[in-house]
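Worked example 3 (structure in, sequence out).
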């Protein structure tokens, strides 16, 4: 889950918030931080590796833009994790009830020793 790695650092989260508003160059992104430009570039490289940011070359600049697909995966995971666990337990119960019904029907259809004797006679 690359999106989780992308949002693990506060600087990367802030970069993502900047890019959520609009695509930006590396220099424009670096202006928002008190850290060095190489440090910002390192964070951008991590975000590129996580596929949450894509870069487009425009002249001599690289314009970075947000990609939301990996973050949607994280959101889906968190939504599932934050929802009550009861439905999953009920799913397991429903599966068990269906299995028991299937086994009973199969047992009712299976020939008993008495029916086997009648059929052979």
């Amino acid at each position: 889950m690359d999106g989780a790695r992308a949002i693990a650092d506060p600087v990367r989260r802030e970069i993502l918030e900047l890019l959520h508003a609009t695509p930006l160059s590396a220099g424009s992104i670096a202006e928002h931080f008190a850290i060095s430009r190489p440090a910002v570039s390192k964070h951008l490289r991590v975000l590129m590796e996580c596929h949450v940011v894509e870069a487009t070359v425009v002249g001599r600049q690289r314009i970075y833009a947000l990609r939301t697909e990996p973050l949607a995966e994280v959101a889906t995971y968190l939504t599932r994790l934050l929802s009550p666990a009861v439905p999953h337990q009920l799913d397991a119960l429903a599966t068990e009830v269906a299995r028991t019904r299937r086994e009973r029907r199969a047992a009712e259809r299976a020939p008993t020793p008495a029916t086997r004797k009648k059929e052979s006679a």
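Notes: The longest helix spans residues 86-109. The helical segments are 2-6, 10-21, 26-30, 37-49, 69-82, 86-109, 113-120.
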